[in-house]
Fold this sequence. Notes:
Elements: E1 3-7, H1 12-23, E2 27-32, E3 45-49, H2 55-68, E4 72-77, H3 92-120, E5 123-127, H4 140-160, E6 166-172, E7 185-186, H5 197-208, E8 218-221, E9 229-230
Parallel strand pairs: 1-2, 1-4, 2-3, 4-5, 5-6, 6-8
Antiparallel strand pairs: 7-9
Amino acid sequence: MKAALVTGASRGIGLAISKKLVKMGYKVYGLARDFSTAEIEGTDFIRVVCDITDTNSLLKKINEIKNSEGNIHIVVNNAGVGYFGPHEQLKPSQIEKMVLTNLQAPLILTNLLLRELKKNSGYIINISSITAKKSSTHGCAYCATKAGLSHFSTSLFDEVRKSGVKVVAIHPDITASDFHNHADFTHGEDPLSYITPECIADAIENILLQREGTLISEITIRPQKNAIERKKQT
């Protein structure tokens, strides 16, 4: 059985991707700090409790997986965190957390598993953001981390494409999840004003079903309507 590794797998986009991959016949190693709310059936989803911003912990967990699993074909760098507002109002700890989660962890995780993926002609799928592709005056630090992830995806594909590894950057627009818990805005109430985690999981299925030799290396997923709403101040 082919295996996949998904970060941020306990909820939202990561959980939807994990469910999709299990349904497609993959054994999924899901990384997250807490699985208490993760609802996924079957024995092909392996919960790996790990804080990916703790490099020593990440190294230990990945080495354990590599020692027990030699068939990793997919790595999904999904875990992400965002803090928004004028840049001077962000706390240094918030900026650090975004850099560690959104950029450093995917680079390190890819580094640790790249030889395995080369051996299996596998996939690296990076969940970036539509903010990586445009100016973001309410979240420039978050935008910078995601732009870095997208540029990493493009450059890495050029580096490893001859080895058979496929590298994909997905740029979701505003998604109905708890990602915006830390923000002063959220998606609109109209279902046409947001995408869902399942939309992104479906896009990954489409990417994986392409004929050998064909790669959708970049994809942007947007809602039909633009209706961001400011949260009420309490």
